[in-house]
Specification:
The complex is a heterodimer of chains A (about 290) and B (about 325). Chain A has 2 domains: about 1-175 and about 245-285, no CATH class; about 180-235. Chain A is built from 14 helices and no strands. Chain A has helices at about 1-15, 15-40, 45-50, 55-75, 75-80, 85-110, 110-115, 125-150, 155-175, 185-205, 210-230, 235-245, 245-255, 260-285. Chain A is flat. Chain B has a 6-stranded mixed β-sheet, with helices on both faces. Chain B has a 4-stranded antiparallel β-sheet with strand order 2-1-4-5. Classes of the chains: A mainly alpha (about 290), B alpha/beta (about 325). The interface of A and B includes residues 76 and 82 of A.
Chain lengths: ~290, ~325
Amino acid sequence: MTAIFTHELRSYFHTLTAWLFAAFLLCFVGIGAMLYNIQAAVSNFEYVLSFGCLVFVVIVPILTMRVLAEERRQKTDQLLYSLPVSTVEVVLGKYAALIVLYLVPLAIICVYPLIFARFGEVYLPTSYGSIFAFFLLGAALLAVGMFVSSLTENQGLAAGVGIALILFNYYSVSLSEYVSTSPVGSVIALLVLICALGLIIKYLTGSGALGYWAALILAFAVAVTYIVSGEALEGLLPEIMSALSLFERFYVFVNGVFDLKAVVFYLSVTGFFLFLTVQSLEKRRYN
Amino acid sequence: MLQVENLTKRYGAVLAVDGLSFEIAGAGVYGFLGPNGAGKSTTMNIMTGCLSATAGTVKISGYDIYENPREAKKRVGYLPEQPPLYLGETPEEYLRFVGEAKGVRGAELKRQIAAVIDETGIGDMRRRRISALSKGYRQRVGIAQALLGEPDTVILDEPTVGLDPIQILEIRALIAQLGESRTVLISSHILSEVQTMCSKILIISHGRLVAFDAPDALEARLASPGEISVTAETDAADAKALIAEIPGIAGVTVVSDSPERCRLTVEAGGGDIYALSKKIFLAFAGSGAALCELGVKKASLEEIFLELTEKEPETVVGEEAESA
């Protein structure tokens, strides 16, 4: 695992990727700090981060698009498979390198609240709590991006899908206000989600029957619920959309609450997508 | 040492590898020969853990590639068909990564990298980017990678494909040298290549092993018995009468006939073809008809190869019909 990790890290710093990523993140957070903390003279650094988290939509896919897609395109994935290193180690090694890469600009960002504290009163626990949540949010998004990269050998496609996914997640709460709250709307949304789940199962296991049956059983369960008590489904769709939002939970920290549930949520999302990435790589060996 | 037992790989309805079993042990270069699509790359990918098998086992130096992948993979070096190189790195950086991933560290890693760079002759290129290297050198870097960790078994998938003639000769010499101390398995669809390099040849066709022997033994054992062309100063009828008395002849065809000279082709029925040609010589000598020409034509490995790999589809089709 350490070999994969150091190799990955070295290659990031050899190319422009690492520098661009750090420059982009620092630039965006810098602009935010200037607008809020300096021009508007607000002492809350967490507002800067809540403004800055939009940058993830662009930088996470750019950083993660090549991490596995490029291996596949260059056929170097065959080398990884033939080395005495397990797939879990490959994924963890690569992910750890991404995290370290992300921690470098974050360490610089950690200095900002201290600087501002010299010129006024800054409530540091909220600032650092938010930075911590900012880190977890980014870490979860990196895991999502890595999974997307494992699905294709086309970097551009990986980046496009990554941007779309993260953008949708970013706006999902705003969008949830406009979607139907009626039970029928919820049923339709659930069916779409079930179809997506079925397709993921089919893709990862390579067994069509398993995916179809899982989707059918879930669809049946939804139908039964709808017939038995339609009201139970009322407003479910907007609830699901906001529940899945990674960004929404971050704003809780910005408002000064250290939400342990959110920490668990971020870690679960990270773990889940790393698991999916391992499965996606393993699957290529088993097709 | 490499043990493959009953290996089967199915892609949907297509049977790529079909109950393949063989065992190779000891130093030497072994050739894995088959036409395109015979299942060579699939088998090699399975043997090195890049692909799963539908059934069967692969053991490398006694370690099962599925049950004990870490130990098994440490003992095998693999060069896939397309060398898996990180083009932005130099050979030195690349080899350091592969060595570390194989669990070699520190001074030992330095020593091994120097050794494989020396062995594959890429010393002058060690600090250039791989993207700037020619195909032949990239292939060498790929081989160097496979040698790191000092594996007992080295598997090279079509190591000479796409190289120019000089590079091919160089890579062949390199492989022959590697085979002095290790078990080297190379795949190829080019027969002459395998014939010159390998001490033993495995021929596969449609995912099945159809022959496994030394090139000479293959010729001796599997060759159609061959032909003897005879030109004699007599007419065809007399010549045929003379030959008909010799035992061990499958058939005679007349190529040309005139009262003073005839040409015949004698099909040998098996056994030593030179003993047969001697008998023909003596028969003609005894009758007083002068032999102008006596030519022995043995079946070449090329013919054996074609014969072995072409007749197979029928049996496969037959089996499919049965299972359906």
